[in-house]
């Protein structure tokens, strides 16, 4: 069976190492906070928080504690708060080791489209463009295909780009792929999924 949202988030958490400062994007990436476990990871939110904890249990929510996606979160004993200017200085200054982001499309060159669909009203691109330009490693977590069954891993992105050649690793409901010279390389396959299924669901070139 393909991975569900929580399994994808748990797999993304395996990418994180002790001592890392990590930004989690909106959507599935926010679930990564629940799977960090005992690792010494410091999660950063661009709305001005360093040291995010997991999501609160029902009834324990604090409406003043939210992430960049407006979801209620928890704080830790070491949590620090600051303004957005300081937050983005961390990102633009290369202080954040990795970002785990969602995506609408990724192509075989590592181009990322994750902030808008033409003709659909959006509030803005948020911090995504700063993140892909400023962090050390970009990990994308996304469904392999859209609701119509069409691949979201493309030869070339069709939507407005967030960044060019910025994606390092892609974690989908079917498996894990890296952006390498010539296309995408399959690193891991979800239990119950076959390599042929991944190839059939991928428009981008897959490198052996």
How many DSSP H or I helices?
4
Instruction: Record the strand order, biggest sheet.
Output: 4-3-2-1-5-8-10-11-12
- By CATH, the topology is Glutaconate Coenzyme A-transferase
Largest sheet, in brief, is: 9 strands, mixed
- Low-pLDDT runs of 5+ residues are none
Instruction: Specify the structural class.
Output: alpha/beta
Give the fraction of residues assigned to helices: 10-25%
Tally of individual domains: 1
Strand content: 15-25%
C-alpha Rg (nearest Å): 17 Å
User: What is the total tally of β strands?
Assistant: 12
Categorize the overall geometry.
globular
**CATH superfamily name?**
Glutaconate Coenzyme A-transferase
H/E series: HEEEEHEEEHEEEEEH
CATH architecture: 3-Layer(aba) Sandwich
How much is the average pLDDT? Answer: 93
Gap from first CA to last CA: 23 Å
Write the layout of secondary structure elements.
Layout: H1 5-13, E1 21-24, E2 42-45, E3 49-52, E4 75-81, H2 84-92, E5 98-101, E6 105-107, E7 112-113, H3 128-134, E8 137-141, E9 153-154, E10 169-171, E11 175-180, E12 183-189, H4 195-200
Parallel strand pairs: 1-2, 1-5, 5-8, 6-9, 8-10
Antiparallel strand pairs: 2-3, 3-4, 6-7, 10-11, 11-12
Notes on the protein architecture:
It is a single chain. By secondary structure, the chain is of the alpha/beta class. The protein has one domain: Glutaconate Coenzyme A-transferase (3-Layer(aba) Sandwich), CATH 3.40.1080.10. The protein is 15% helix and 25% strand. It is built from four helices and twelve strands. The strands form two sheets. It has a nine-stranded mixed sheet with strand order 4-3-2-1-5-8-10-11-12. Strand 2 and strand 3 form a beta hairpin. The model has no long low-confidence stretch (mean pLDDT 93).
